[in-house]
Structures are given as structure tokens and as C-alpha cells.
Amino acid sequence: MDFAYILSQIFTIIMFALLGLSYLAKKRTNILIISLIATLFGALAYILLSAWTGLAMVILGLVRNLYLFWDTKRFGERKTIERRDVIALIVFMAASIALTIPGYNGPLSLMSFFAAACYTYSVWQKDPIVYKFLGIPGAVLWLIYNGFVKSLFGVILEVVMLAFSIYGYVVAVKAKNEKHHGRA
User: What whole-number distance in Å separates Cα of residue 163 and Cα of residue 175?
Assistant: First the structure.
């Protein structure tokens, strides 16, 4: 283990701590702010690991989260998906595909693409419950990718992230059901 690998694992730990917090956030704006900071640490970790497809997805995620943050600040927290939302989603998905091609290194390198696509779709939804639910398959896909790039803490902490996303989803559904049934 060299210094770059150890530093990548430290950045990975910071990224996952922040992502774990995002699954506990109740407002979409807070989810986006926490995710923005987390993606910066994820980018640094993947640079140090020479994990280029993962880095491309994290950088695109950073741009995506900046866009979503700007959109939320400009138009407010909305409950509906509008035409510009669909157009932006298509643009970001197309960019994900284009950025995956140069870093392709076998089928397992595509796991970062599928994980990023899952996350991109989840944050485009106006319901935080959808975000929390799609965190479950996203965590599984990132777990596979982190194993592929040999990120020990990426694998370990992705298991923790999977638990956070399941917990966050269950708590959100329970709260929604209690509110729906008049018990809140």
C-alpha cells in the first residue's frame, strides 16, 4: 500500500460519511448540498485509484448536483416534474454514456455507470422516498464497482451505505404511512 492508496481510502471514508448523512436528510435541498460535498471527496479518491470510469461518473454527478441545486434554488421545491426536468435528465444520461466509453475496462467497469444512472434518476424525482429507495440498488452497483477497483473501504462502506439507504427508506415509508393514516 502506497500513500496515494491510503489517502484514497481516507477520502472514501469522508465521502461515505457524508452520503450516509444524505440518506437521513428530510429535504431535497439538504440532500443535494451534502451530496455535492461528498462527490468532491469521491472524485479525489477515484483519481488516486486511477478509477477513470468511476471518476467520470463522479464528476458528472458533481455537475448534475450543481444543476439540481441551482434548479431547486431558482424554482423552489416542486412536487411535479416539468419539461425542463426531462430534458436535463436526458442530457445527463447521454453524457453518462459518452463518458463511460473512454474508461471502459470490461463489464465490471460499467457498474459505476449503472450506479450513477440509478442515482441520477433518483435525485430527479421530487419525492425523497424515491431517492432513498433507489439508493438500495445504487449501493449494490457501487459495491461491485469498488470491489473491481480494489477499494477496500469503498466495499466496506458501501455495505454500510446499503444499510443507511434501507434504513432511510423504511423510516420514510413508515412516516408516510403514519401520516396517510392520520397517526402522525
Answer: 18
Q: What's at 158, amino acid-wise? A: E
Residue 63 phi/psi, 5-degree rounding, is -65, -45
Q: Where are the domains of the chain?
A: 3-180
- Determine the residue type at 182: G
Burial 38-51 (b: 16+ CB within 10 A, else e): bbbbbbbbbbbbeb
Quote the CA–CA distance of 159 and 7 in Å, as a whole number. 20
Whole-model pTM: value is: 0.77
Which residue, among 119, 99, 121, 124, has the nearest Cα to 110 in the 3D structure? 99
77: DSSP letter: S
Q: Which residue has the cell 477520502?
A: 11
From the first residue on, what is the mean pLDDT of each consecutive set of 10 residues in the chain (184 residues)?
Answer: 93 89 79 87 93 88 85 82 88 91 88 89 80 90 93 91 88 88 65
Which is it for the CA torsion 148, 129, 15, 61, positive or negative?
Answer: positive
Residue 64 vs residues 4, 58, 92: alpha-carbon distances, Å: 27, 9, 7
Kindly report the backbone phi and psi dihedral angles of residue 79, in degrees, each rounded to the nearest multiple of 5, phi listed first.
Answer: -100, -10
